Amino acid sequence: MPEKSVQSREKVRYGVAVFPGSNCDYDTYRVISELDNRVNFVWHEERSLNNYDCIVLPGGFSYGDYLRTGAIARFSPLMQSLPDFLDRGGLVLGICNGFQILLEAGLLPGAMLQNKSLKFICRYVYLRVESNNSPFTRLFKKGQVIRMPIAHHAGNYYADENTIFEIENKKLVLLRYCDKEGSLTEESNPNGSLNNIAGITNLKGNVFGLMPHPERASSSLLGSEDGKLIFKSITSYIAERVRSF
Amino acid sequence: MKLKKARVYVTLKPTVLDPQGTTVAKALNHLGYHEVEGARVGKIIELHLSDQATRARVEEMAGKLLANPVIENFTVEMEE
To answer: Over the stretch A117-134, which tens digit does the pLDDT of each residue have?
Structure first.
């Protein structure tokens, strides 16, 4: 992003991507907007992302999940523009289907398989924050147990042995499925994900994908506000960076 | 114009667990087919192509979109 415009504005600028079949875009927009950010929808055919600090790929069923989840959406013009956007200092958050798209695009390592149970699972889960050394989780405490809902059919995280080793070694796992006490048990792993992985970041730390829905856990009326802290983390990170220029 | 067909077989890599295949194998066991010791479920994508189509192009398509190299293998069968 050009530094000049960063200095001369106040609010952090989010873009919520809209693919054919996105269905969590409005919820995501609303939560981000309520947290006093500037937010716009970005149609998947958009190539210019100059006016954003963070692009959010929301949940849903882009292109009907045809072929594989995220397999077709990854070729959209917006997705093609993300590497440049990241090089210019942007952040990218992928939620659920957004995470699946990021994996298909190779912006995060690994792939999603169908849930071990072969069922669509829609319920609250407990998650352990594995690291707060990230723009996306900096306001959490390391080891904090939080609650967010999941809603997916293909959230069974897989990567080959070497990749898993690399991911663990470089501490790229930000969230893991756990029980109420924060223990990583097989019973608390809803979908069969390797190492209970629920959310990972990349080596540069500027991309985060997670299967749980923070936007559905951002109001006490809906049962949890834990998800808000992800958006607040992003905003605080970008705001601090802007001030330090 | 004469049409060509290609069949792209997409299968999960042997190292990837296939819960669908496991369920299919179990169901066959329940039906009395005790010789079934395992099953793997994949997919076939049949492409209808113009006569200029080449195997190399179809393999490119498979690598780029039809299969995910992280979890899947593919083979291409051309039919004149």
So the answer is: 999 999 999 999 999 999
Q: How far apart are CA B41 and CA B73, in angstroms?
A: 12
Q: Name the nearest CA neighbour of B19 among A194, A68, A188, A118.
A: A118
The CATH number covering residue B31 comes to: 3.30.1280.10
For residue A181, the SS3 value is coil
pLDDT band at A1 (very low <50, low <70, confident <90, very high): very low
**Mutation site for A-interface testing, chosen from B13, B70, B74 by largest number of A Cβ within 10 Å:** B70
A138 CB-near residues (< 8 Å, 6+ apart): A132, A233, A236, A237
List the single residue in A75, A113, A116 with the smallest CB-CB distance to B71: A113
- Strand order in B4-12's β-sheet? B43-49, B4-12, B72-79
Beta partners for A57? A94
- Predicted local distance difference test score (pLDDT) of residue B67: 98
> What is the token pair recorded at A135?
């723009």
Report the complex ipTM: 0.87
pLDDT for A130 equals 98
Q: Give the number of domains in chain B.
A: 1
Q: Which domains does chain A have, with CATH numbers?
A: 3-243 (3.40.50.880)
Domain range for B58: 4-79
